Amino acid sequence: VQVVESGGGSVQPGDSLRLSCAASGFASDYYAIGWFRQAPGKEREGVSCIYSSVGSTLYAESVKGRFTISRDSAKNTVYLQMDSLKPEDAAVYYCAATYRSCGLRPAWFDFWGQGTQVSVSS
Predict the structure, then answer these.
(1) Interatomic CA distance for residues 106 and 85, integer angstroms
(2) pLDDT digits over 72-102, tens only?
(3) By the 8 A CB rule, do 45 and 60 touch?
(4) Among 18, 33, 77, 100, whose CB has the most other CB atoms within 10 angstroms?
């Protein structure tokens, strides 16, 4: 399994950004893709998750109503649309995959991308 993130960048508070996660190599149609983030000096935290078979989603409380996870099955890509960005959203964002169901715990996921930096400042 391979997951590759893209789409990070530097934005101002209130701006939007869309991250992409290209995922491939699954041995099953049943898997979950999650987005995580890690700010300097902080633990990695779960942001959102989407389950492949039914498209069910999960969000951390801190991003509910601002972030939207979606998928394009034809492109094997999962997106994280981030709106109304805040300085506290700044972090390295990681995409990860698991054959388990959706969750927001990093330990739940087995396959990780290299991360993409998101900076939010005025």
Answers:
(1) 22
(2) 989 999 999 999 999 999 999 999 999 999 9
(3) yes
(4) 33
